[in-house]
Description:
Elements: H1 5-12, E1 17-18, H2 19-30, H3 36-49, E2 52-54, E3 63-66, H4 68-94
Amino acid sequence: MQDPTILILASLADGDKHGYAIMEDILVFAGIRLGPGTLYGAICRLEERGWIRAVKSESRRQPYRITAEGSQHLKEQLALLGQVVRTGNRRMREA
């Protein structure tokens, strides 16, 4: 996966997280380590698109939350990935 968008949205789908927690969660569920530059660049793009937003916090760490639009985009992308996986698996069985 070259684009971290779906990874970040998937991480935030189960609750608010700050940057480091997002990076660690992605490492656990996807086995991919995003560097800080990649992560925060993607977070900026996701905020600009309205797919995530910063949440007020007393902590020095800035938590983020997925928006309704972000949830919808994630659902669409997961459906597309599911179709790719099903097709690939079917074709592998036929080969």
